[in-house]
Design brief:
Shape: globular
Structural class: alpha+beta
Number of helices: 16
CATH class of the largest domain: Alpha Beta
Number of domains: 3
Strand order of the largest sheet: 7-8-9-10-11-12
Strand content: 15-25%
Mean pLDDT: 92
Length: 522
């Protein structure tokens, strides 16, 4: 998205090239736009380092290096470092949640989210104001609430995510009926979260952006939402408009590549390169044309992945074992061995390697029981090791080029560790979880027949906004995490106990008001 004002232009998250092992492509296709012109901007904003937002090849080739970079306040320097490698030199280091006035009266504010589960160590939203007109590019970010943006004045344009951006549940080795049921739950949660954000901000106009990707490789074609599958987590903008209408939404605006919306305090005028309804009515034809046009790109990428000279076990030991030695919270959170089944070039031979978190080692699989297992092509792991990739989530897992199985609940620590395969990232994540564990939410609220802590134990979402109680279970709609209220146990993942008691019952006695005592459920 490009924002133009009389005081300057801001290019946001230009993504054109395929991401995640050539699995994700932007849809609708934006590669045919005049990027030579669009890249001549005053400011550049990259919300985070996910490769469907940070397109290094495109940034290097098409975006002016004279652009001033609006840099979110992140705990690591990775975003700045990677932009400097691409040739950018002028950085405006913003302070999270502080309004900054730029030249000509243009005002911006970036809210940085910095938990280890926010993007690849960080995600952000951009607020912009010029001459009384305000815009919020929320993008993928999931803030606990939007009160800060609302407090700065009425927002006229609200851009936000509505579609899936994950591998769940498609890659799990489950019966198709179970996949469909889980997918439908996730699809419904995605829309519910979107409606809550829209209702919080009450902007004049709502723009569904940040999704969905499309899948053009024949091996992944089934992930496109073109088969009438109610469990598909990648609904497109036309589906958003239909669902939004069901909840009374009348202010949605769909943008195609090349669309332009001119916004004032009292009006909006949008022009499109083609009829929007007709475009989505012909979605399958557009995807099939894209698939043929992009096929050489996919095949060229696939040809670059094999590195038979790499001893995968040896290299995984060299890279991962020092991090296992340093890890306390993540290793404890994983709590057991994680197995990688690597399928050879012939499609049959399998080498199984275990990352043993309690044993602090990487070794060959020894027929033991494991709770977490991934199956993927050996070539993909070879490539990750070859390029020294520090984030296997922002590469392998988001590619959906794997299958997974687990015994028991989802474990966020597994994915947190594999996005932190560098000392800088690991140390930050360890420190964040250490601080998070020591911090207890002392405020209680009443939801239905229960008194619970106000902030979700997972990522501190405000349960007055996102909490729903059904019987003895509470669901936090921000990320879909569920809790058993009588026991306080998290039903979605490992850890994250919630404090709860039935309304009318006295609060439990505490021992000296210690965090540990305060966190004990009734």
């Amino acid at each position: 998205m490009r924002i133009d004002t009389p005081a300057g232009s801001i290019l946001c998250d230009p993504w054109v090239n395929p991401a995640y092992f050539a699995s994700w492509f932007p849809f609708p296709d934006n590669s045919l736009l005049d990027w030579e012109t669009l890249g001549q901007v005053d400011y550049l904003y990259l919300s985070h380092l996910h490769r469907d937002h940070f397109d290094a090849a495109h940034l290097r080739r098409f975006v002016s290096k004279k652009a001033r970079v609006l840099l979110p306040e992140y705990p690591t320097s990775e975003l700045e470092d990677q932009l400097r490698e691409l040739g950018f030199t002028d950085f405006i280091k913003t302070v999270s949640e502080e309004v900054l006035e730029l030249d000509g009266g243009l005002k911006v504010m970036i809210q940085a989210l910095t938990s280890p589960t926010d993007g690849p160590i960080g995600d952000s939203s951009l607020w912009v104001e010029y001459d009384g007109v305000r815009l919020l590019n929320q993008n993928d970010a999931r803030p606990t609430d939007l009160a800060l943006f609302e407090s700065l004045g009425h927002v006229h344009a609200h851009m936000l995510q509505f579609s899936g951006a994950i591998w769940y549940p498609m890659v799990y080795e489950l019966p198709q009926a179970a996949k469909t049921a889980f997918g439908k739950q996730k699809r419904d949660r995605q829309f519910d979260r979107t409606w809550r954000y829209i209702d919080d901000l009450k902007a004049s106009h709502v723009f569904p952006i940040a999704g969905p990707p499309c899948f053009l490789d024949d091996e992944l074609w089934q992930f496109n939402d073109i088969f009438g599958d109610e469990g598909n987590i990648f609904p497109d903008q036309s589906v958003f408009m239909k669902e939004y209408a069901k909840v009374g939404g009348t202010n949605g605006v769909v943008l195609l590549p090349g669309s332009v919306s001119e916004i004032t305090e009292t009006s909006i005028e949008t022009t499109h390169p083609t009829d929007v309804d007709e475009f989505f009515a012909n979605k399958v034809a557009h995807l099939e044309e894209m698939r043929e046009r992009k096929r050489p790109i996919i095949e060229a990428e696939k040809a670059s992945w094999r590195h038979p000279e790499i001893d995968v076990l040896k290299e995984m030991k060299r890279r991962i074992e020092p991090l296992l030695e340093e890890s306390i919270y993540l290793a404890k959170g994983v709590g057991g061995p994680v197995r990688f089944d690597l399928v050879g070039y012939d499609g049959d031979a399998v080498e199984s390697i275990v990352v043993d978190f309690p044993g602090k080692e990487v070794r060959r699989y020894a027929d033991e029981k494991v709770r977490y297992r991934f199956r993927t092509e050996r070539a993909l792991i070879e490539h990750l090791l070859f390029i020294d990739e520090v984030d296997w989530v922002n590469s392998l897992f988001l590619s959906c080029r794997f299958s997974a199985a687990r015994i028991g609940q989802y474990n966020e620590f597994v994915y947190a560790f594999f996005k932190c395969l560098s000392e800088e990232r690991l140390q930050y994540a360890e420190g964040w979880y250490d601080e998070h564990e020591r911090t207890t939410d002392a405020e209680d609220i009443t939801l239905g027949d229960w008194v619970v802590q106000r902030r979700c134990p997972h990522l501190k979402a405000d349960l007055t906004r996102f909490g729903i109680v059904d019987g003895d279970q509470l669901t936090c709609q921000l990320h879909g995490w569920r809790f058993d209220l009588p026991s306080g146990r998290c039903l979605t993942g490992v850890g994250h106990q919630i404090r709860a008691r039935r309304a009318g019952e006295p609060a439990p006695a505490t021992d000296g008001d210690t965090p540990e005592a305060a966190a004990t459920p009734a």
